[in-house]
Amino acid sequence: MPSPTLQLSPGGRRFVITAAMLGWFGLAVQLYLILWSRWIDHASLLGGLVRFCSFFTVVTNTLVAVALSCAVIDRHSAGARFFRSPVVCAGITTSIVLVSLAYNLLLRHLWTPEGWQWIADELLHDIMPLLFLAYWLFFVPKGLLKPRHVLMWMLYPVVYFGYLLVRGNAFGDYLYPFLDIGTLGVVRALTNALGVLAGFVGIGWIVFAIDKALGRKEHY
Fold it and tell me: Where are its TM segments located (predicted)?
């Protein structure tokens, strides 16, 4: 898997550092809000941490924050090279765009967050997707993707959906209402899951097409 060193201009480096800091800040605020809510309800803080780590939004934004951090640190470990890989960055781009689209199309109308929750909500669902998309478009080398990479990226949402269904069956908490088997039934919930997966694949192919188009320009 190719993982060339990113060549960032001073301005580009400042952009990536700012984006990384915003990403970690949004995650920290969301974690605090969940743990504080659990504390107020006298519920298990460990359970709150597990719940926090179970959201697709949180997992994907963590990948975004890690990838942005790895882009500006001068380390050559296997992990840093992995997260600087154009293939991995393109896969994360596909995932974080899905986070934004799914939230805005399926979930935003269900609640009206305020205060710090609104800040975390906007950072994780709107601002970070745009910032990481910009990072991928302007700073990550292009022309290295293959069709098989789109299929490889599918493993992430497939494994996540599997985990979510097992978790929901065990605890009765499916996290996302459009995947709630207890309320919707198996057929409708799985149909919704397949619809989201189809959206992921569609976004993946668009990312692949953009990569090819920009890759040709880079070689001219």
Answer: 15-37, 49-73, 85-106, 118-138, 150-166, 186-210
